[in-house]
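Office hours follow-up: a student asked to see two folded examples consecutively, so here they are.
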Amino acid sequence: MNAQVTAMRPGDAGRCAELEALLFSGDGPWSADAFRSELAHPHNHYVVVRDESGIVIGYAGIALLGTTSDAESEVHTIGVDPTHRRRGLGSVLLAELLRLADGHGGPVFLEVRTDNEAAIALYRREGFEIVGTRRNYYQPSGADAYTMRRPAPPSETEEPQP
């Protein structure tokens, strides 16, 4: 599949909410209004991937926080339509978020359900490490989450480590 990632538009919020309900039904899925609210904040960046007919089949969002001297980013969400999984779309969406984060600078944080082995494996492949556990993080299910961190990439002026 030739996946093209584009900026999420307010008109995409309804479809993203539909996918949320499929993907996160037991953990308070976001509404269309929640997506539109996220889009209204200038530090948030949300993207979508569409199928050949233009239907949103995946989405992702990140917050670019802090200033140049104390920058960090936080992945808010990544979701892929269950009928389009195992095609690399999660990797494509995460790569776009990390591209944005790397341009911003600093480490990247995220939370992931402790039982979501596929997502944890994806994040580990991209350099994330588990740095903590948040008990009962997801509500209303009460599922635990790992906090994961990917360090900032070395700057162009830093010498590579031997």
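And the second, which I mentioned at the end of office hours:
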Amino acid sequence: MRFLKFIIIIILALFGVYSLSMNFVDESKSFVHHSEIAYPVDKVFPQFNNLQNFTSWNDFFNEKEDASYSFFTPYQGLGSAMKFSDPKNSDHGDLFIRYSNENRSIRYQLFEGDSDNPYLIDVKFIPSGDKTKLIWNIHTPKRDYLQRSLNLVAEDFFVENIDKSMKNLFQLLGNKVDKDQLLASVKYDSVMVENREGGLLLGVNVSTRNTKEILFKNVMMNHSKVLNFVKSDLAKKDDEFGNPVLLINPANLKDKEISYFYGIPLSKRVSVSDNNFNFQTLNASKTYVIYFQGNYNDRVKNIQELLKMAKKDTLRNGQLIEEFLEEPADIQDVKLKLSLPVFR
């Protein structure tokens, strides 16, 4: 009994000391951290301004292995929003972009759990030749009296997170630069022969009117639909899937109504609850390939070149594969890899 009383007295004494010490800890804390990355600001800023990009390299989200994400329109810039949830660790929250000045500054609000008090994170971008300097201003939320001890470690936590995140972003941008250099060396409008590996695609079957005004808009809509599903619902990162592809029967390109499959390559099958999405296998094959750049509607001429070559070589062909080499946005400027599987 005496031992129990002694333990209770010790606990009360420690609680008293802790409570007293909290009088000397601010209810919120502000601090500044400087960082630098060896890429120009026009490459760096889009990684901050798009929350899907942001979560792919920011260490705060990378360490949440079982987290799921929901992104809301607009997907980039002022008004962008996302929710994250990690049931395994009882962790959830919301992230918002409250201000965005292209290549200059951005402000986030981060809510953790059910708290109504957010973290305010302001990032200033300073161009420095081929490098970008970043100034992070962090303001922690107001905390209850007994939670103020978290402010004692908040700065160390954010500094470590930012430094790790910058390393992740440097690696990500390095991969993008390699891809840009590869695209710069592509020879357009020349037919080549390649052996294409097989793969597994997750996507949607689509039917739409085949007019110059409607088709590209329909492709863009399904591109966003499939990409958002893979990134948000399946929580896949950029290095976990390949370039989106469109499969279509080239014999139907002149029909008034056209059907196609739009999908994203995945390494393996996953559980999918949305019946709008399904898997399709892409078999390994010999392919005739031509790279195209320009107005999306003008690609038909290049496709005809592939079909003529197959006919000349007395080969049958499979479904045409259209692969976007860059994120499609403007019908006037797309970069495609057109592949036509051929066989005897």
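Two things to take away from it. The radius of gyration is 26 Å. The chain has seven helices and 16 strands.
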